[in-house]
Amino acid sequence: MSIKAELLPRHVAIIMDGNGRWAKQHRIVVALGHRKGVEALRSVVRYASDIGIQVLSIFAFSTENWNRPQREVSALMALILEFFASEIDELHGNDVQIRILGEKSALPDAQRQAVTAAEERTKNNKGLQLNIALNYGARDELLRAARALAREVQSGTLKPEEITASHFEAYLDTAGQPDVDLLIRTSGEMRLSNFLLYQNAYAELCFPSVLWPDFDQRHFQEALQAFAARDRRFGGRNT
Q1: Domains of the chain as residue ranges with CATH
Q2: Pairing of strands 97-101, 129-136
Q3: Which of 27, 48, 224, 237 has its CA 20 to 30 A from that of 11?
Q4: Are 63 and 102 a contacting pair, CB within 8 Å?
Q5: Could you say which DSSP state residue 191 is in?
Q6: Active site residues
Q7: 4-8, 23-27, 123-127, 144-148: which has the minimum mean pLDDT?
Q8: Residue 232 pLDDT
Q9: What is the separation of C-alpha 152 from the centre of its chain, rounded to a whole number of angstroms?
Q10: 144, 163 in Cβ contact below 8 A?
Q11: Cα 193 versus chain centre, distance
């Protein structure tokens, strides 16, 4: 498959849905479904980097995921450590820049230290910008941005009437990055689930039925081809 560079999305966001259902289908514990999902992620990140996607955002762990069974949460936290330990050398070697979306402060110490170290090590890389949403919720992100602006106004450095979209976006977790062009949610579910609500304002949406652990390069290519064929008008009209 070959798509002209100008037809590729700059920013792709992925809700990696279906690990639990995949595990159930294969009669294994959910933790192994999540582990299989990491293999799919590895392939997608490599492909996005190879073809020149500018930003890839993945929803790894939401603010609501803490409500899942403790055994599953513990398994996910262990996978986070394992992912950064096993993948950071390759990611750094491929010039990938890692950014964590969400509140790192609420993560366990080991996980917080691992993700902070990954951000620091890759901060000067110029290739794919890989956003990993951990303890992330879009409503929480918007509240944090609003509070930061309120503090500016309270301090007298900014007047309410001077607030622009650029001011607001500078306080988002994705500051400096383009809005999402293409959102992919696997497993056929058609929800945003509190993921990048501001950034997805004009995203093209793709809901393949494949469960995330089975999502491979072919499925990614199909989503990119569908995106390239769409007529994006951003509220206007193409003549």
Answers
A1: 7-137+179-228 (3.40.1180.10)
A2: parallel
A3: 237
A4: yes
A5: -
A6: 17, 65
A7: 4-8
A8: 74
A9: 28
A10: no
A11: 12
